[in-house]
Amino acid sequence: MKKVLLLLLILVVSFSTVFAQGSEESTKPSTETESDGVTEITFLSSSVKPYCTAMPEMIAAFEEENPDIKVKLEMLPTKSIWEMVEVRLGAKESTPDVVFTDGPLVTSYAFKDYLEPLDSYFTEEELSQYLPVPLSACQVNGKMYATPFLNSSQVLYYNTDMFDAAGIDRLSKDPADRLTWEEVVELAQKLTTDKDNDGVPEVFGLGIVQISRPYQMLTMPESKGGQAIGKDGLTVKGILTTDEWKEACQFIQDVFNKYNVSPKGVSSSDMLAYFPSGKLAMCVGPDYNVNAYSQLEGFNWDYAPYPYFEGGTPVTPSGSWCLGVNKNSDKKEASVKLIKYLTQAPGCIKWFEMDGHLPTNVNTMAFIAENAKYKEWPFDMFTLLNYESANTAVPRPSTPSYLEYESMLTNAFEDIRNGADIDETLANTEARIEKSLQKYQ
Fold first, then answer.
1. pLDDT the model gives residue 291
2. What are phi and psi of 388, to 5 degrees?
3. Which of 18, 50, 65, 315 could form a disulfide with 222 if both were Cys (CB 3.0 to 4.6 A apart)?
4. Helix axis angle, 362-370 relative to 347-355, nearest 10°?
C-alpha cells in the first residue's frame, strides 16, 4: 500500500512538470563575468521535476563540450518564471540570457520586444529538425522568436479489469479507429457504478483531466470545425458564440450533469490519481503519465487514441516549453549555442532519455521509432504519439493576450461544467476577451 501511495505521489508530481507550478526555491543569481576567454550566460529554467535534476546534468555536458562557455542556472517554479521574465526583460536587463517560455507566451513576448528573433542564427537544415506544429508556436509574423523544446499530447487511458468485467472489448490503438466522444460517453454510462443509489457513483465512467483548461478543452470545438481565435490572434468576435462552440460546451455540461459519468469538484492532479485508485474506468489525460502508471503493480490498464466528435475532425492537444534569447542579452551567440545543444541532435536525444516527455525534434522521433523499448507496451504509446504530433496536433492560440484569454476561458469552462447557461456564458466571455485584445489591435 505504501508503494502505491508513493507512486501516486510521483504521478501527481509528474503532471506538474509541464503545466502545474513547482515549489522548489530558486538558485541565487550571481553577477555574470567574462574572464580568461570564458563567456558566462545566465539560463532561467524550470525548477520542477525532472528539470531540477536533469538540466544541471545537461549543462555540465554542454560545458564539457564548450569549455569557453559557463552557464549560470537560475531555476524557478513556472509562475515565478513568468513573473521574472516580466520584471527583468520588461526592464530591459541583459540577463537572463536564455529563458524558458510556455509556447503561447512567445507571441506576447515578441509584441513586448523581449525576445531576439532567431532566424538568422539557424540554417535551413537546422530548422528542418523541428516538427512543424511546435515550431509554428514559436513564430510570430513570419519570424522565429524561440525554439521548441518539449511537446505534449493526450490519450484515452482505461482500466482493463473494468472493461473485462463489463464485457466490453479492448479498444483499438489505431488512430483510424479512434472512438468518438459520443461513443466514449456510451461506454462511460455502462462503466459508471452507483451501488447504493445515493447519486454519487463509487466508480465514474470518465475523467477528463484538464476539464477547464483551454489546452485540452479547445480541441472540442476545434474537432467540430470551430476556431479558438481569429487568424491574427487579435479577435474572438463571432468565434466563441458559434454553433460549434455551443454544441461542444453542451457536451461538456452533459457529461457532468445529464449523464453524471464524471466527478465534479475534482482538480486536475486529483483526477490523475482517481484513475489508478479505481475511481475512474476511463481517463483522458497527458501522455507522460505512462511513466507513473507503468510502475503500479496490480493496476491493469491500457490506452487508446484521443477521441473526436462524430462527423468532425480528430484534433489533439499539443505544446509545452520553448527556449528564447533575451533581446537585450550581450551574449547572444553563446546563448544560441546552448539552445541548439538542448534542442538539436544529438543533445535532444540525450535530453529525451533523461526527461521522457514527447519531443519536438524529428531526430528524437526517429530514435524512438528505432529503439526496441518503444516497440513494447506501454511505451509503444510513442508510436501513436508520433502519429498525433504529425497529423492531429494543434497548438494553443497565438495571441499577445494569451494569459488573459486562458484565464477567462478557464472560468467559462468551469462555469459550464457546473451548469451555467451556455449561450450567456459564451457571449459574456467572448465580450471580455475581445475587450482585452483591443489594446493590441
1. 87
2. -60, -40
3. 315
4. 60
Q: What is the pTM of this model?
A: 0.89
> Which one is the CATH code of 18-151+320-380: 3.40.190.10, 3.40.50.720, 3.40.50.300, 1.10.10.10?
3.40.190.10
Task: Write the CB contacts of 404 (distance below 8 Å, at least 6 apart in sequence).
Answer: 433, 436
At CA 95, angle to CA 93 and CA 100, rounded to 5?
115
**CATH superfamily name and code, 154-317+402-440:** Periplasmic binding protein-like II (3.40.190.10)
Helix (H), strand (E) at residue 69: strand 69-76
What's the distance, CA 333 to chain centroid?
29
Q: Pairing mode, if any, of strands 147-148 and 321-325? A: antiparallel
Mean pLDDT, rounded, of the chain? 91
Q: Cα separation of 116 and 93, whole Å?
A: 13
As given in the structure block, the three cell numbers for residue 382 are 510513442
Condensed to tens digits (0 to 9), the pLDDT of residues 74-94 reads 999 999 999 999 999 999 999
Outline where 66-195 has alpha helix (H). 78-84, 105-111, 124-127, 132-136, 160-165, 181-191
DSSP 301-326: EEEEPPPB-TTS---EE---EEEEEB
Looking at the chain, the domain(s) classified CATH 3.40.190.10 span 18-151+320-380, 154-317+402-440
